[in-house]
């Protein structure tokens, strides 16, 4: 892939092959330094500025990168996260480092108040979850660096991954159709995506609620690049409602103000079952039930979230029963499902290749997080336009799974070029490629390493 983004002759007449090798070595060194700098005794922080604790799906992507450098850290990363798993099987989206000051991140451990909730670990955590990409990451990391210690670690992790899936498929199937519901935009990973605008608008709150709190994110990043104060007021209101129930899920359908079936979240849940089938076979367990559940989730996802009129997947607001109208990168992520029907695969390719996203065999920039042609496209604001390495990695993974190596190569080359130009930032301007958010961001470095391993 590097050959597509370097000249035939390098600076000063250096042969292209030598330039490519030098560029690759320099990028590997930057990525390694980023991960080493963010390592925190048994896990990796996303960044030393904005995110000083452990985040759930960050750790999954980060483990993929560690598999290329220090495989033992890949398994430590996942193990430390699952050590904070709740008794009901949920994997919290934040595990708080007790040596970090409570006010270093908002909302901090005192706000979540989970240590007094029955069935939670002694370690302070949040009460929410994030997309279950962990089984997929574990299997990918194992394939990148197979060994007997890695197989043993995979075997120890397997029952915890199964418990995570059971929690989502039982406690969170609020709609009763075989899909998991998210109870907060943070659970999607795409916090302020336009996909949540309609469900969020119905959340009763006042912007003044934030007067009792101090946002820490806008201390480290420009406010124009982050979710708005009104977004945060609604985020706080939703958490407050969930916290008041002790984070119980039994009465979500009756009381909770935000309930959405997310395409990415459920695609990750289906892909996790497929990965668990591979893991089960590797460790001598029965892969059959995982294959059956993967097929059932894929069918439910198509039936519930695919819109044949738009030719893409949308989130479903369970409060109204309607699909939300925004055409975001979430609609492309079901490609990670290995058994996604051909009709939907082809529709996603049309959507991805349209001016809304610009996927091509040769492309200048990776996919944006939102439809470029939409009136509410914001190239600087978090998940309302910028490009993110992890979502592009997932779409590329899906392209390879469905037999589209040229498109995958084009996407991968654009991702490498982005990091080569701007560094390992949290996210990037979708047009200029400028780095946004936190510098030295861990999952960007980790997934860059994974891309470079295939060059």
Automatic annotation (TrEMBL):
InterPro entries: 6-hairpin_glycosidase_sf, 6hp_glycosidase-like_sf, Glycoside_hydrolase_63, MGH1-like_GH. It comes from the Bacteria. The keyword Hydrolase applies. Keywords: Glycosidase, Hydrolase. The keyword Disulfide bond does not apply. Residues 51-444 form the Mannosylglycerate hydrolase MGH1-like glycoside hydrolase domain. Belongs to the glycosyl hydrolase 63 family. This is Mannosylglycerate hydrolase MGH1-like glycoside hydrolase domain-containing protein. It comes from Micromonospora fiedleri.
């Amino acid at each position: 892939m590097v050959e597509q983004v370097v000249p035939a002759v390098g600076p000063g007449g250096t042969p292209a092959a030598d330039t490519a090798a030098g560029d690759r070595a320099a990028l590997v060194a930057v990525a390694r330094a980023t991960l080493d700098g963010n390592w925190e005794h048994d896990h990796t922080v996303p960044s030393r500025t904005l995110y000083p604790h452990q985040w759930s799906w960050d750790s999954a992507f980060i483990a993929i990168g560690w598999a290329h450098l220090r495989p033992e850290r890949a398994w430590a990363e996942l193990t430390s996260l699952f050590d904070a798993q709740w008794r009901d099987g949920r994997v919290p989206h934040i595990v708080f480092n007790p040596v970090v000051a409570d006010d270093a991140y908002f909302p901090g451990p005192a706000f979540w108040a989970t240590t007094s909730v029955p069935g939670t670990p002694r370690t302070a955590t949040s009460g929410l979850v994030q997309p279950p990409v962990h089984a997929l990451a574990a299997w990918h990391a194992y394939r990148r660096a197979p060994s007997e210690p890695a197989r043993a670690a995979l075997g120890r992790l397997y029952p915890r991954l199964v418990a995570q899936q059971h929690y989502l498929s039982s406690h969170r199937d609020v709609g009763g159709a075989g899909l998991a519901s998210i109870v907060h935009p943070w659970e999607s990973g795409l916090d302020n995506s336009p996909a949540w605008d309609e469900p969020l608008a119905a959340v009763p709150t006042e912007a003044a609620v934030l007067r009792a709190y101090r946002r820490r994110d806008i201390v480290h990043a420009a406010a124009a690049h982050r979710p708005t104060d009104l977004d945060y007021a609604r985020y706080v209101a939703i958490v407050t409602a969930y916290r008041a129930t002790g984070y119980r899920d039994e009465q979500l359908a009756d009381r909770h103000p935000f309930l959405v079936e997310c395409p990415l979240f459920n695609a990750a849940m289906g892909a996790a079952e497929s990965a668990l089938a591979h893991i089960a076979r590797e460790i001598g367990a029965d892969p059959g039930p995982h294959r059956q559940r993967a097929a059932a989730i894929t069918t439910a996802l198509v039936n519930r979230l695919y819109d044949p009129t738009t030719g893409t997947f949308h989130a479903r607001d369970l409060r109204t029963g309607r699909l939300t109208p925004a055409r975001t990168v979430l609609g492309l992520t079901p490609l990670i499902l290995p058994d996604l029907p051909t009709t939907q695969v082809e529709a996603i390719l049309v959507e991805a290749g349209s001016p809304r996203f610009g996927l091509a065999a040769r492309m200048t920039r990776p996919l944006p997080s939102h439809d470029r042609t939409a009136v509410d496209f914001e190239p600087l604001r978090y998940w309302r336009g910028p490009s993110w390495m992890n979502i592009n990695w997932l779409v590329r993974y899906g392209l390879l799974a469905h037999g589209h190596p040229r498109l995958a190569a084009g996407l991968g080359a654009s991702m490498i070029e982005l990091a080569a130009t701007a560094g390992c930032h949290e996210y990037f301007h979708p047009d200029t490629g400028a780095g946004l958010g936190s510098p030295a961001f861990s999952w960007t470095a980790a997934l860059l390493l994974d891309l470079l391993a295939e060059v």
